[in-house]
Amino acid sequence: MQSSSRSKDFSQLFRSSPKELYSEKFYYAMDVDSEDLNNYNKTCDEIWVREPKDQMILICKKYLRFLHKSESWSVAYPFYDISLLLNYWIYDNLSRIYGDNNTDAIDLGFGALQGKWDTHDRIIRDRSYYEKCRPEPRKVNHEDWKNRKKLYDFYVDYDHLFLMAQIYHDKCEYYEKIKEMIPVCAYFKGKCSSGKYNCPDYFNKCEVKDLNSALQELPCHNTIKTKSVRTSEDGFSHRASDHTERPVDHAGGPTAKSDTQLEIGNSVIGKKVAHSVLGAAPVLLTATALYRVPGFVGSVEAEQTI
Question: Basic and acidic residues: which segments have biased composition (predicted)?
Answer without folding.
Answer: 231-249
